[in-house]
Amino acid sequence: MRKNYLKKGLIAGIIVGSIAAFSFLGYIYYMSKKHLAANEKITKSKSFKDLNLQLTNLDGTPADLTKFSDKHILMNFWATWCKPCLEEMPLLQKTYNDNEVKDQYVFILVADHDLPTIEKFKHEKGYNFVFVKANQDLMSKVGALPTTFILDKSQNIIFSQTGSFDNDEKKFKNFLLEKSKK
User: What is the residue-averaged pLDDT of the chain?
Assistant: First the structure.
């Protein structure tokens, strides 16, 4: 009789565990689709000019992307809690320090943290690219982090990627220089 209860309990546990696992996987799938769909809204717009971006410089003034019209823009959306974001930043910095890349690009890193948090992070790490704050609406449109967009000189989107770049500086530099020809 006791074996019968154990057998029924084991079966019930397997059923409940399976339901929980499938529910969790379904939720993960739903959220990934939601974030990818949000990102597609930005990519389908073809141009960042159409998005009416509300970005803020670290000094609190509105960021104006038109002042970079002589260069391509690498715009990277990140967060301090995002491990892949933090892991790719040294690659971004090394590549940005290359004069050939710097002649063609401005790197803008976008987060939704408060301005003092972004500024503290920038100075502690010694990064010298442009950091700006985005409003929550823009960050929700981006979805998954890190997400990077490459814009041509007219702010048209010529490349987008969700996820971090491979940690190969030469390959990344060549990729950027190739994109800057467009």
Answer: 82
